[in-house]
């Protein structure tokens, strides 16, 4: 064999390995890529569905309360305060989500209220009253101030969201009906909407976390998902959060339903990317391990096959070289492994016979 030339065994082994492995690697790459993209698509669709469902359910529950407050503003009778107090007491007893319901005149003095709380006191500076004079309103969560002194002692400070609507008579505003809703009810509602491995975060208008993981509550959120809140119809982002982990985040820009005045809330639904795709990534790793193991076995068999194919040729080449060097050498090995080697072996025998006859 000339120096620098490849052996047939090397060409058979190398060529077979390329022809066998390249299609498998290319197909495997396309398959695993498509698998991961599909897993990511399903993840996003699942988070979108949960985000929209959670925002819709919370909005519907709030809207139900809003409809009650709005209806109350149309039927409350400021001329019969005793009857009005009985009605407010009954509502607050039947629905514990109301911590306080009251009616104030246009000057801001509470005329009547559930359990008589704050009656005779001025709420003229409270946002719900000032905005309620102008029209139906909803006020974001805040810590109790005046009402806290009248509430039962609690280890945690009381927080409320407010709803208010003007009371009109002959097309003139004669007062405002307001309701304080216990924030713990909102928290319980969101807790019931949680799912394992998926976090719900409720953001205020100024991107402060109202509900979510304990380490983020009452803190402003400056990541891209928070920046996208209140700006888009629906957004999906893959980004790193302050805890150093990567999350897929779906932004639901509004939490509202029907005629409910908006609180300016946005809902974020996030899931840890590594945890969400762990099963898919394990499946991909298993696929490549199995493909690698199969390729190793195939290469070993290919190596043995190339050795099996080239052995007769090596023996015949040695016999040919011996005939050239000395025509009286022993008869070449009779090859029968495959037809081409057998033909070449018989030809060498006949060639040696002619040389000897000469």
How would you explain this protein's 3D organization?
Strands 2-1-5-4-3 form a 5-stranded antiparallel beta sheet, with helices on both faces. The model has no long low-confidence stretch (mean pLDDT 87). The protein is α+β, with helices and mostly antiparallel strands and 358 residues long. Helix 1 (8-75) packs antiparallel against helix 7 and helix 7 (278-325) runs parallel beside helix 8 (339-357). It is built from 8 helices and 10 strands. Helices cover 49% and strands 20% of the residues. A hairpin with a 5-residue loop joins strand 6 (198-203) and strand 7 (209-211).
Features:
358 residues, alpha+beta, five-stranded antiparallel sheet, 8 helices, 49% helix
Write the layout of secondary structure elements.
Layout: H1 8-75, H2 81-94, E1 98-105, E2 110-113, H3 127-134, E3 137-143, E4 159-169, E5 172-182, H4 183-192, E6 198-203, E7 209-211, H5 224-228, E8 235-240, E9 246-252, E10 266-272, H6 273-276, H7 278-325, H8 339-357
Helix pairs in contact: 1-7, 7-8
């Amino acid at each position: 064999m000339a120096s620098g030339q490849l052996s047939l065994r090397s060409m058979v082994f190398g060529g077979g390995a390329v022809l066998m492995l390249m299609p498998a690697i290319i197909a495997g790459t396309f398959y695993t890529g498509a698998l991961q993209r599909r897993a990511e698509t399903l993840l996003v669709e699942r988070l979108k569905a949960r985000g929209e469902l959670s925002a819709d359910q919370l909005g519907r529950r709030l809207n139900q309360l809003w409809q009650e407050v709005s209806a109350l503003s149309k039927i409350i009778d400021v001329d019969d305060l005793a009857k009005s107090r009985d009605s407010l007491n009954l509502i607050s007893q039947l629905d514990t989500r109301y911590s306080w319901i009251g009616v104030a005149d246009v000057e801001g003095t509470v005329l009547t209220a559930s359990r008589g709380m704050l009656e005779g006191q001025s709420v003229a500076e409270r946002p719900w009253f000032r905005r309620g004079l102008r029209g139906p309103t909803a006020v974001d969560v805040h810590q109790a101030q005046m009402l806290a002194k009248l509430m039962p002692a609690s280890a945690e400070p009381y927080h409320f969201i407010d709803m208010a609507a003007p009371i009109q008579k002959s097309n003139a505003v004669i007062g405002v009906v307001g309701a304080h809703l216990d924030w713990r009810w909102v928290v319980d509602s969101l807790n019931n909407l949680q799912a394992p491995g998926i976090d719900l975060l409720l953001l205020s208008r100024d991107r402060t976390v109202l509900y979510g993981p304990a380490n983020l509550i009452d803190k402003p959120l400056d990541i891209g998902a928070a920046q996208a809140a209140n700006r888009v119809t629906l957004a999906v982002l893959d980004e790193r959060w302050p805890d150093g982990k990567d999350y897929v985040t779906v932004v639901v820009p509004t939490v509202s339903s029907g005629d409910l005045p908006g609180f300016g809330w946005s809902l974020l639904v996030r899931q840890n990317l590594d945890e969400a795709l762990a099963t898919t990534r394990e499946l991909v790793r298993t696929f490549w391990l199995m493909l690698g193991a199969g390729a190793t076995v195939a290469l070993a068999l290919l190596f043995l096959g190339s050795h099996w194919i080239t052995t007769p040729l090596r023996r015949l080449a040695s016999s040919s070289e011996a005939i050239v060097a000395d025509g009286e050498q022993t008869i070449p090995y009779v090859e029968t492994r495959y037809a081409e080697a057998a033909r070449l072996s018989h030809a060498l025998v006949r060639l040696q016979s002619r040389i000897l006859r000469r």
